[in-house]
Amino acid sequence: MSGTPPVNRSTQRVGRLKALATSPRALRLGMNLWPPFLCAGIRIERMDEDLRHVRVRLRHTPLTTNYVGTLFGGSLFAMTDPFWMVMVLRGLGPGYVVWDQAAEITFVAPGRGAASASFTLEEQVLEELRAAAADGAPVRRWFSTDVVADDGTVLARVRKQLYVRRT
Description:
This protein is an alpha+beta fold. It is built from six helices and six strands, in the order H-H-H-E-E-H-H-E-E-H-E-E. The two termini are 18 Å apart.
């Protein structure tokens, strides 16, 4: 079964340390201290209690720039990487497997200053996923996020495809 994540029928598990982050506040703190974010200049500025809205920021410093002085593309992608999966997994609740299955990034403009990305998960999307996965069949859905400069200029467009299945 090409392209299907190797999962069993049990409930999806998370790592031991990540499982300790039972509240959004603890999750936000832990992710802000997570070395891939901390060392890349990525910071979660906002994470709502219901995990329906997240805002992330990438600083522009000598350590976050590439050879030509603009924001490093890998960091632009990394700042968007985990959020749709975590938000959907927490939003659906127990009894679902949620995986990142595909991703793409389109660079639109050079990042000459700080950048941010916002994620908003509507209840309607969760209802659609629950309905589509009700029979146990896998569901794939794309989510999009723009990475923007402080002046509103779009720097990159990121798309993530999630695999969702009821267990």
